[in-house]
Design brief:
494 residues; alpha/beta; Nucleotidyltransferase, domain 5; five-stranded mixed β-sheet
Length: 494
């Protein structure tokens, strides 16, 4: 028997088929072949058509069934991971009223900032654990202000994963974890934040009913089965946003456990049972997948926008053939890159720097001694130092890391990058080869609460290696201190 997991991203949809008894990945497919289109009618806007998501979900499902020859009746459950913070609006027939306003759309920034001031920063911090900012609730208010006729036709407001679950099952519902990522959840009163909805003038009836993250959330309908090729009656057993799901995929559930990713941008996602929001202006706080009214599990999310995109920029401009070649060049240079410093913040405003947009800074190049090898090393170190800087922020917000687990993506494949972080934070980093879709498929069994068996499947199937702190701590501290001093000077002068 098998379980099926979906991962709805902004560039593609991945589907994974996993053997239920062992957690072994049987197949992984991606749709479409090219990146999904994104619509931007105005600067800073980003929209996608929910019906496109559904088309690619159907195509991916049919493809994986065809490739594996697995019978639909052999699939015992479906799990869904999805891009966070999006807004899908449907009428009473369940038909989308407009394209989805997705996570990277910035049109509601001013609405969220105004709400933060009007409602009281302390009040928002204590109850929402965040500013309303540019999250889903603020986007819904934007629709009310700018598209009033359309707003009056809304039956339900959903997150992207809620919409996919609806198309599969015919049921409209959401989770506490999902509502918290939209900033609809009041952590103090442990209910939908009615006072925030009242402020925005949003009808509470627009918010879907709540189901548990790990639960029977609905069953594949006749129509859903016809469109996807799945068997009618197959249960949907799990749903979560991409970052909580990435943490789940790495077996990160408990206080002190930290998940890290190092793709185009970098993410540190740390679990705590503490509702501290000391760094709420630089760190987001969401209900983790195993949050409940009696079990406070909060995911503190810190993002480094200028991460892998910096290394990719060098790849494209240094006339090198691969990341492997860049890593080999970097290994020829000592810790500290012979004085070259790179601040990699060239991918827009950095929330962890209080939304400052510094651009990428390259400092201290000596044209007589420095080469592209120094740039490769300085880039890896600069991105790694950014992660360490982020961990310092999380530590100030009450996080005490006991274990760090990371996916086997581009940056964490580099020993220089991983050893730099492990040595400076004095913490081993475990590396796993997994994906969000595989994690979503495995999570179908967590409705029975057997976290130990879930963790064993990840260790048996995905564990690759660990990076331990090195004996060269003094050299790393010296290099990080120089980098941090340069960052503080740059922040002061910009």
């Amino acid at each position: 028997m098998y379980t099926l997991g979906y991962d709805l991203g902004s560039s593609s949809i991945k589907a994974a088929l996993v053997e239920a008894s062992t957690g072994k990945s049987i197949a992984l497919v991606s749709e479409p072949k090219k990146e999904m289109s994104m619509h931007s009618l105005n600067k800073g806007w980003a929209e996608q058509d929910p019906d496109d998501w559904w088309t690619y979900i159907c195509n991916a499902t049919k493809k994986i069934l065809e490739e594996t020859k697995v019978l639909p009746s052999e699939i015992t459950g479906v799990g869904i991971s999805y891009q966070m913070h999006g807004l899908v609006l449907v009428d009473k027939e369940g038909i989308p009223l407009r394209k989805s306003i997705i996570w990277c759309d910035g049109r509601a920034v001013d609405i969220g900032a105004r709400a933060f001031d009007d409602l009281g920063r302390e009040n928002c911090a204590q109850k929402l654990l965040n500013s309303p900012a540019n999250f889903t609730a603020s986007k819904l208010r934007w629709v009310k202000e700018n598209e009033p006729e359309l707003y009056n036709s809304i039956y339900k407001a959903m997150l992207p994963g809620d919409y996919i679950a609806y198309r599969l099952s015919g049921k409209i519902n959401s989770t506490i974890s999902g509502l918290s990522e939209g900033i609809f959840w009041d952590f103090k009163d442990k209910q939908v934040a009615g006072w925030l909805l009242d402020y925005f003038g949003i009808h509470k009836e627009l918010i879907p009913e709540i189901v548990d993250t790990f639960s029977d959330q609905g069953h594949i309908t006749v129509k859903g089965a016809k469109d996807t090729g799945l068997a009618e009656g197959t249960p949907i057993l799990y749903r979560a946003g991409d970052q909580p799901n990435n943490a789940l995929s790495l077996n990160v559930f408990n206080p002190g456990e930290v998940a890290a990713t190092g793709g185009t941008s970098g993410v540190i996602y740390a679990i705590t049972d503490n509702l501290s929001v000391k760094e709420s202006s630089r760190v987001n706080n969401f209900a983790h997948v195993n949050y409940s009214s009696s079990n406070s599990r909060i995911g503190k999310l810190l993002c480094v926008n200028g991460a892998g995109i910096m290394y990719r920029w060098l790849l494209n401009n240094l006339k090198v053939s691969s990341y492997q070649e860049m890593n080999e060049l970097a290994a020829q240079v000592p810790i500290g890159s012979d004085g070259v410093i790179i601040l990699p913040f060239g991918n827009g405003p950095e929330r962890m720097l209080n939304n400052r947009d510094l651009g990428t800074q390259i400092e201290n190049i000596n044209l007589n001694i420095h080469s592209k090898a120094h740039l490769c090393r300085a880039a890896l170190e600069g991105i790694a130092f950014s992660f360490v800087y982020g961990m310092e922020i999380l530590k100030a917000d009450g996080i005490k890391a006991k274990v760090i687990r990371a996916g086997n993506d581009n940056l964490f494949r580099s020993p220089i990058f991983s050893n730099t972080i492990a040595t400076l934070i004095e913490q081993e980093i475990e590396i796993y080869n997994t994906t969000g879709a595989i994690g979503a498929a495995r999570a179908c069994h967590l409705h029975n609460g057997n976290y130990a068996a879930f963790g064993k499947q990840i260790m048996d199937n995905d564990y690759i290696m660990s990076y331990s702190p090195t004996s060269q701590k003094a050299e790393y501290i010296k290099a990080y201190t120089h980098w941090k001093n340069q960052l503080e000077i740059t922040l002061k002068n910009n």
